[in-house]
Amino acid sequence: MTEAFRLSGLVKRYGAVLAVDRVAMTVARGEVVALLGPNGAGKSTTIDLLLGLITPDEGQVQVFGGSPRAALDSGRMAAMVQNGFLLRDLTPAELVELHRSMFAEPLPVAEIYARAGIGDFAGRRCGKLSGGQLQRVRHAVALAGDPELLVLDEPTAALDVDARRSFWASMREFAGSGRTVLFATHYLTEAEDYADRVVLMRQGNVVADGPVAQVRAKVTGRTLRAIVPGADEWALSALEGVASARVQGDRAELTCADSDRTIRALLREFPAASAIEITAAGLEEAFLALTADAQEVPR
Ligand SMILES: Nc1ncnc2c1ncn2[C@@H]1O[C@H](COP(=O)(O)OP(=O)(O)OP(=O)(O)O)[C@@H](O)[C@H]1O
After folding, report:
1. Which of 135, 174, 187, 231 sits most deeply, having the most CB atoms within 10 A of its CB?
2. Can you give the pTM of this predicted structure?
């Protein structure tokens, strides 16, 4: 595996708050990784540690085998962080030029404009731009050094649906060329749709790390729905493989520990059952189960 970055045993305390508690992960080049977790889980702190904006109390950060500072200075790593500072009196065009001038092999201007979608307002002062437009300018600035690793903290928070879609299309193209992306998000659908791998944090710890399907599978069980004429809850709960049953009129909803056994038993005991549908738990169920004592429900 060619490594993009490695976090080993990271600990960060703020007074009595343990913001990050022994976080470890290794991300290979070409991976697109989503960092998920409820408010206060430690996502931003982990990102700040990766970027070298804060130093860990314990543990190590390696980016392309060196320090975060070296990776940022060479343009190999770039970031888009929440409310990243932009000079109000400069135009996006000037900002892009300023950032390009810092790197030996910057991305061509036209490519930056196209990827970040800033062409329409590149000549206007940043102080006059909307929140969504400013977010695109941050995207443009992050692309200036033609980075191999992009680190994004809630990149689409200020974007409307269309802008969000074009942002991810651009990210997909970026990652398609073998580059690495780590993004923190509250949108589970973004993780599901765009990440190869999901790292789920809770109270400073990594509680799940793997491909989306694997994280989903941490929540075992499937839901079986069917029309079952004359069914009663007691009889359905007693079927093999059923953990719990709910009945409304002829509609039955069974939570199954083993849906294969349940479907056989259902058809044996209730041959008139129809419109049978079995669904796996989604990422949302996994998120809720794995972050059970968290306060916030994800969007
Ligand atoms: N500069 C700081 N000073 C004191 N406490 C901090 C500081 N930064 C973060 N914390 C605390 O550390 C914990 C982790 O915060 P962090 O911002 O990393 O979480 P997060 O997962 O990014 O949350 P959100 O989804 O709300 O952005 C929280 O309890 C937070 O209050």
Report:
1. 135
2. 0.79
